[in-house]
From TrEMBL:
Record keyword Signal present: yes
Key words of the record: Signal
Protein name, per record: Right handed beta helix region
Organism of this sequence: Xaviernesmea oryzae
Span of the signal peptide: 1-30
Keyword presence, S-adenosyl-L-methionine: no
Length: 735
C-alpha cells in the first residue's frame, strides 16, 4: 500500500540520534572546549554543528548578535541569550541559533563548569585571494575573495595595508557570500599588501586577515604591432608556418608585441611557437582561420608557448591532431612552471574522425591519440600561474582542456565540447575561478571531469566552479564534476606530538611514501583530536612539521590519515542536465555545494572510502540545491557514503550538513556507513529540506553516528524516513 502524506505537506519533528560507537579520549572537563569547525553560513532558527574537543563538558551555549559597524570596538554588545542544545559528545555539539535574531554575525560562547570558549558564526572564512593577474593584481584591476560569508551585504569592505602601514579601502562590487569582487583604484601604488575583510555584518571583531597580495604595475600598452596578410588566392599547397614563426621571432627580439593576422585562411603544417612577450591575434575569429594539413604524424601541439604569451581572435581547424594549444610548460623538465598565458575568443574545431572511415580506422586514430597522451589529447593544455581562458569555443577529438598546477587561473564565458572518451581536468590547482562556462558532451563516450591530484600533485585547493552548465555526459562514469586522487602517504598512530611536529610509525607509510609530502593533509580520524586537520610543511624521516601547533589537541596514539590534500572547493549556482554524479570522491575538506540545480542526473554526493588509502571527508556542506527527476537507471540522491572496509574502525566522514535542498521527484537523501559495528560516518545534519513525489524521503543505512534530522518537509513520500536495520556486519572486501 502506498503511504501518502497530507496534501499540504508534513513537517518532521526534530530527531536526534546519538549512537555511540567510537571510544574517544579528550581533555579533562576542566579544560576549555576547543573548536575545530562550526557550520555556517547559518540563519536564525537553524542548527549549528560544532566539532572540536571537550564539547561533552559544555553546560550552556550563549549567543549574541553583533552590532553591524566595521570600526566599532567600544559599543556594548547585546546580552547573550541561551541557545537550545540538541546533542553533544566529546567531539561534536549541535545547537539551534535562536529564531528571533536578525541575520548577521553571531558571537557564540560555550560554557563548561570551569572554562569558556568563544567563536563567531557568519564571519568571513576566507579560502583564498585572487587578483586580475592571478596571484597578483594591478591598478584599475580587481581582487576576488572566495570562501564562506565573503560579502553578506553591499557594505562589505576590504582594506589593503601596505608595508608603510598606509591603507587603501576597497568597496565591494556587490553582495556575494561565496566570491566577492573588489575593484582596485587606478592610482593604487605597486607593492605588497596585507588584505583584511569585513563582510558587511558584525562589529570590528568580525574583520578577518585574508593574507597578502602583490599589486604589480599595469601591463605596457604601447607595444609594436606587426601585420601579416593571408596568401591570396588560397591554396592547399600553401604553408604559412615558417613566416608566422619568423614574424613572432622578430617581435620577440624587439621586446615583444602583437602579430596581427588579417582576414583569410592560413595554411600550416608544423607548430607555431610563440615566444615570450608575443600576442598572436587575428582580426576576429570569424575572419581569420588557421588550418593544419592532415597528416599521420601531426605536431605534438599546434600552438605552443612557455610564458607571457596569448592567442586571440581566430579559428583553428585541424584533422588528425594531438594537443591543440599548449602553454606554460618548461621545455626541459616538462613542469608547469610558466606564467601569464591567455587564450581569448578562440574557436577550435579539431576532429581526427572526419571523413568516411571503417571502425578499424577510427580505432587506430583513437589509439594514436592515446599513444601521444594516455589520458587523451587536449584542446587546451595549460599550466602554471595566471592562466586566462575567455570567450572561447573548444572542440577537440577527445579532451576539451587540462589545467596542470594552475595558480590564479580564470576560465570564463567559454564553451567546451568534449569528444570521444574525453574529460576535462583541473589537476593540482591553487586558486581557480571557473565561471559562466558550458561543458557539453559531443560524443556518446564523452564523460565529465573534475578537480584532482592526478599527475603527481600533492594537493588541490581553492577552486570556485560557479554558474556553469554541464550537459549530455554519457561516457565512462558520467561524472559531471568529481574529485579524484588515489593513494596516500601514511595511515596509523602518531607516536609523538611536540608543538608543530609529529612523529609517525615507520611501518605505516602508504603507496605514495616516496613522493613529496609537502602540502599533504593530515586528518585525525580516531582518538584525541578527532576532526582536526593540518597540512604537512616538511618531512625528515619519521618527523613531520605541520602548519600549526597541535600539541594538546592530538596525542600519542591518535590515528591519522595523511594523503594528498583536497580542500576548499566551492561548487555554486551550476546547472547539471543529463549527467551522472556531482560529487566528492575520496578525500575532501571544507567543500560546499550550494544553489545548484540538477535535472535527470544521479545527484550530489560525497564518498569517503579506502581508495588505495584511507580517504576521509571532513566538513562538507550541501546547501539549497535542487534535484529533479531520476538518473538514467535509478532515483537521484544526495548521497553521503562512508564505505567502511575490512579491519578498519576509524571514521571516514565527519561533519556533514545537508540543508534547504529541494528534491522534486524520484530523489532521496541517503546516508550510509555500511557497518553497524564500526560506524564510518559521524555528525550529520539533515535540516529544512523539501522532498516530494518519491519512494523514500531520507534513507539512513548502517554505521551512522550522531545524526540530526530537523524540520524537513515531505509530501507524496511513501516512507518519510527509513532508519537502520541492525544486521550482522557486512564488510566491503579487503582493500
Amino acid at each position: 500500500m502506498r503511504f501518502r502524506l497530507p496534501r499540504l505537506g508534513r513537517r518532521l519533528l526534530p530527531i536526534v540520534f546519538m549512537l555511540s560507537a567510537l571510544g574517544l579520549s579528550g581533555p579533562a572537563a576542566a579544560d576549555a572546549p576547543h573548536i575545530f569547525w562550526a557550520s555556517d553560513p547559518v540563519k536564525p532558527g537553524q542548527t549549528v554543528q560544532v566539532s572540536g574537543m571537550g564539547l561533552a563538558a559544555v553546560e550552556k551555549v550563549e549567543v549574541a548578535r553583533l552590532i553591524d559597524h566595521a570600526e566599532d570596538r567600544t559599543a556594548s554588545r547585546p546580552e547573550p541569550e541561551k541557545a537550545e542544545v540538541l546533542a553533544k559528545s566529546d567531539s561534536s555539539l549541535s545547537f539551534i541559533l535562536p529564531k528571533h535574531f536578525a541575520p548577521g554575525v553571531f558571537s557564540v560562547t560555550l560554557r563548561s563548569e570551569d572554562a569558556t570558549s568563544s567563536f563567531q558564526l557568519n564571519a568571513p572564512d576566507i579560502y583564498w585571494v585572487q587578483g586580475d593577474r592571478g596571484p597578483a593584481a594591478t591598478p584599475g584591476g580587481w581582487l576576488r575573495l572566495s570562501g564562506r560569508n565573503m560579502a553578506v551585504t553591499d557594505r562589505a569592505v576590504a582594506k589593503l595595508i601596505g608595508e608603510d602601514a598606509k591603507e587603501i579601502r576597497l568597496n565591494v562590487a556587490g553582495p556575494d557570500i561565496w566570491s566577492a569582487s573588489f575593484p582596485i583604484p587606478d592610482d593604487a601604488p605597486a607593492g605588497s599588501y596585507r588584505v583584511h575583510l569585513w563582510n558587511g555584518a558584525g562589529d570590528a571583531s568580525a574583520w578577518r586577515d585574508a593574507g597578502t597580495i602583490e599589486i604589480e604595475p599595469g601591463a605596457q600598452t604601447e607595444r609594436p604591432v606587426m601585420e601579416l596578410f593571408s596568401n591570396q588566392p588560397d591554396s592547399a599547397d600553401h604553408d604559412d608556418t615558417a613566416r608566422i614563426n619568423a614574424a613572432m621571432g622578430a617581435l620577440h627580439k624587439r621586446g615583444g608585441g602583437t602579430l596581427l593576422l588579417h582576414y583569410g585562411i592560413y595554411r600550416l603544417t608544423g607548430t607555431l611557437e610563440i615566444p615570450e612577450g608575443v600576442v598572436l591575434k587575428g582580426e576576429s575569429n570569424d575572419l581569420v582561420t588557421l588550418i593544419w594539413k592532415d597528416t599521420e604524424t601531426p605536431p605534438g601541439a599546434l600552438i605552443e608557448g612557455v610564458r607571457d604569451f596569448s592567442v586571440e581572435d581566430m579559428t583553428i581547424n585541424a584533422f588528425r591532431h594531438f594537443d591543440i594549444i599548449k602553454g606554460g610548460f618548461d621545455p626541459l623538465s616538462g613542469k608547469a612552471s610558466g606564467r601569464n598565458v591567455a587564450v581569448r575568443r578562440v574557436i577550435v574545431r579539431a576532429s581526427s574522425f572526419l571523413g568516411r572511415m571503417t571502425d578499424e580506422d577510427a580505432a587506430q586514430r583513437l589509439q594514436a591519440m592515446r599513444g601521444h597522451r594516455q589520458s587523451g589529447v587536449v584542446g587546451l593544455l595549460l599550466g602554471g600561474s595566471n592562466i586566462v581562458v575567455e570567450d572561447c569555443d573548444i572542440l577537440s577529438s577527445m579532451r576539451p582542456f587540462l589545467l596542470m598546477g594552475p595558480k590564479g587561473a580564470r576560465l570564463t564565458g567559454n564553451t567546451f565540447r568534449t569528444g570521444r572518451r574525453g574529460w576535462y581536468s583541473i589537476s593540482g590547482p591553487d586558486g581557480v575561478l571557473f565561471e559562466n562556462n558550458r561543458i557539453i558532451g559531443t560524443d556518446l563516450q564523452a564523460s565529465g571531469g573534475g578537480i584532482n591530484t592526478l599527475e603527481g600533485y600533492v594537493s588541490a585547493r581553492n577552486v570556485l566552479i560557479r554558474n556553469n552548465r554541464f550537459e549530455t555526459m554519457y561516457g565512462n562514469d558520467r561524472e559531471a564534476m568529481t574529485s579524484d586522487g588515489p593513494g596516500g602517504y601514511y595511515s596509523g598512530p602518531l607516536t609523538a606530538v611536540l608543538d608543530r611536529s609529529v612523529w609517525i610509525d615507520p611501518a605505516g607509510p602508504g603507496v605514495l611514501k616516496d613522493r613529496n609530502w609537502e602540502g599533504a593533509g593530515l586528518f585525525v580520524v580516531k582518538g584525541q583530536g578527532l576532526g582536526l586537520v593540518a597540512r604537512i610543511v616538511k618531512k625528515a624521516g619519521e618527523v613531520l612539521d605541520l602548519d600549526r601547533d597541535i600539541s594538546g589537541l592530538a596525542e600519542n596514539d591518535s590515528i591519522v590519515s595523511i594523503l594528498p590534500m583536497q580542500e576548499n572547493y566551492l561548487i555554486v549556482g551550476n546547472h547539471f542536465e543529463d549527467v551522472g554524479q556531482i560529487q566528492i570522491y575520496g578525500a575532501g575538506y571544507r567543500h560546499v555545494f550550494a544553489d545548484n540545480t540538477a535535472l535527470r542526473s544521479t545527484g550530489f554526493g560525497a564518498t569517503s572510502l579506502y581508495y588505495k588509502h584511507l580517504q576521509p571527508n571532513f566538513y562538507i556542506q550541501f546547501l539549497n540545491n535542487e534535484v529533479t527527476g531520476p538518473a538514467f537507471r535509478h532515483a537521484a540522491r544526495i548521497d553521503i557514503a562512508g564505505r567502511q572496509f575490512k579491519d578498519n574502525d576509524t571514521l571516514l566522514a565527519f561533519g556533514t550538513v545537508i540543508r534547504e535542498n529541494r528534491l522534486r521527484a524520484a530523489a532521496t537523501i541517503r546516508v550510509d556507513g555500511r557497518s553497524a559495528t564500526a560506524p564510518a560516518i559521524r555528525n550529520v545534519l539533515i535540516e529544512q529540506n523539501e522532498i516530494t513525489r518519491t519512494d523514500i524521503g531520507i534513507d539512513i543505512g548502517q554505521g551512522v553516528d550522531e545524526l540530526t534530522l530537523r524540520d524537513n518537509v515531505m509530501s507524496d513520500v511513501r516512507i518519510p524516513v527509513r532508519q537502520p536495520i541492525r544486521k550482522p556486519d557486512q564488510m566491503v572486501g579487503a582493500p
